[in-house]
Amino acid sequence: MSALLPTYLRHDIELVAGNGSFVQDKAGKNYLDFVMGIAVCNTGHRHPHVEQALQEQLQKLWHTSNLFMSSKQERVAAMLTENSHLSHVFFCNSGTEANEGAFKLIRKWTQKKEILTFSQSFHGRTFAMMGATGQDKIKAGFGEMVPDFKHLTFNDFDSLEMITNQTAAVWLEVIQGEGGVIVAENAWLEALMEKARQYDVKVVIDEVQTGIGRTGSRFAFEQTPLKPDIITVAKGLGSGFPVGAIITTPEATAVFTPGTHGSTFGGNPLAMAAAEATLDVLLNEQQMKQVQQKGLYLMQQLKQLPETMVVDVRGRGLMIGIEFHEPVSSLITALQQAGMLVVSAGPNVIRLLPSLCVTEQELDLAVGKIKTVCQQEVMM
Ligand SMILES: Cc1ncc(COP(=O)(O)O)c(C=O)c1O
After folding, report:
1. Extents of the domains making up the chain
2. Mean of the pLDDT values across residues 167-174?
3. Where along the chain is pyridoxal 5'-phosphate bound (predicted)?
4. What would the pLDDT profile of 321-378 be if each residue is shown by its tens digit?
5. CATH topology for 15-47+285-379?
6. What is the 3-state secondary structure (H, E, C) of 54-120?
7. Mean pLDDT, the chain, as a whole number?
């Protein structure tokens, strides 16, 4: 019997080694990994530059707390804010924690209570973030939620009428990941931004899944008309080492003053070593161009899947969803048997989240496996 609380429905595969786009299970079977720890290992598994940075830090110092100065934190913060209107960073350890901190920041900053989030959104599982999340299944059984959050319909112009001078913030993912890889339309985001400006409403973008190059720009909002007051990041920031961050504007320095927020582990030297090396690898124009090109190539290939099975192929950069007419659990199992790992996003969507350093051959290999498995399914 397992001593773990059964909060996860796990696949019967234990992964023990990884390199680049591939992982290996206990029995020695290799898999092409298009899960990447759910959009976490954006540099692939054990990228040599990140591995070296972690090894060097391991031999120096593991933890100091935030009682002391950290030039590594300063450097990573500068890398995250360079060339944008965002200027200040708070480091924490996960996406939920970054969002929870952003919630505190908004409350104190605006002194208002109404926060508008969206149906099918996902922002985490703490009490406040369950409230923020627009999916009933996440809240089921936990009673009354934090009352600040109201959910609007994503990509719906009429629902923007809910933005008023009572609103503290409008809070969204530019591409809803867990909700099914739903891309926000730029015309709608423009209208949203206009309303937010009209009523002096803060804009918070949850970039936990879309950030750190996943969609072909450093942050997904850079490809939209949005000008956020806060973004939250995590997943891809540490290449697999747990780290999260709130990134915000100069005005927030008057809100998050000494003693208002904190974290023992946030910005830990190992996390910062992983983050600095990750950003070294990913946050440059050439990488972002390649992510865009690889994403377009993958999308084109996937659009050739049979229409009898596939409803839609969508996404941006290397965050791609394939929506099927039927539930995808049997396809996911068949792909595992064929040596490829993918993750669902809702019952009918397969989400592809490869390493951003994936090669064209690996993309071809993935498409080949997906096509074969689809053909097998048709014949069954
Ligand atoms: C958009 C988004 N926000 C927040 C979270 C929660 O992040 P974490 O699991 O690191 O707490 C996730 C996780 O999937 C996410 O996709």
Report:
1. 15-47+285-379, 49-282
2. 98
3. 95-96, 122, 206-209, 264
4. 999 999 999 999 999 999 999 999 999 999 999 999 999 999 999 999 999 999 988 7
5. Aspartate Aminotransferase, domain 1 (3.90.1150)
6. HHHHHCCCCCCCCCCCCHHHHHHHHHHHCCCCCCEEEEECCHHHHHHHHHHHHHHHHCCCEEEEEEC
7. 97
Q: What fold characterizes domain 49-282?
A: Aspartate Aminotransferase; domain 2 (3.40.640)
Q: Report the pocket of ligand 1 as residue ranges, CB < 6 Å.
A: 94-96, 99, 122-124, 173, 177-178, 206, 208-209, 234
SS3 204: strand
**What is the number of alpha carbons within 13 Å of residue 339 lying toward its C-beta?**
14
3-state secondary structure of 36: helix
Tell me: pLDDT of 138 over 80. yes
**DSSP secondary structure, 298-337, as one string:** HHHHHTTS-TTTEEEEEEETTEEEEEESS-SHHHHHHHHH
Ligand 1 atom nearest the C-alpha of 235 is 10
- Give the distance (Å) from ligand 1 centre to CA of residue 92: 13
Distance CA 300, CA 188 (A): 25
How many Å lie between the centroid of ligand 1 and the Cα of residue 59?
A: 31
How confident is the model at residue 234, as a pLDDT?
A: 98
State which ligand 1 atom lies nearest to the alpha carbon of 96.
11
Contacts of 231 (CB under 8 A, 6+ apart): 86, 204, 205, 206, 207, 211, 219, 221, 246, 247, 248
Tell which residue, 189, 179, 188, has the closest CA to residue 210: 179
Ligand 1 atom 8: residue of nearest CA: 95
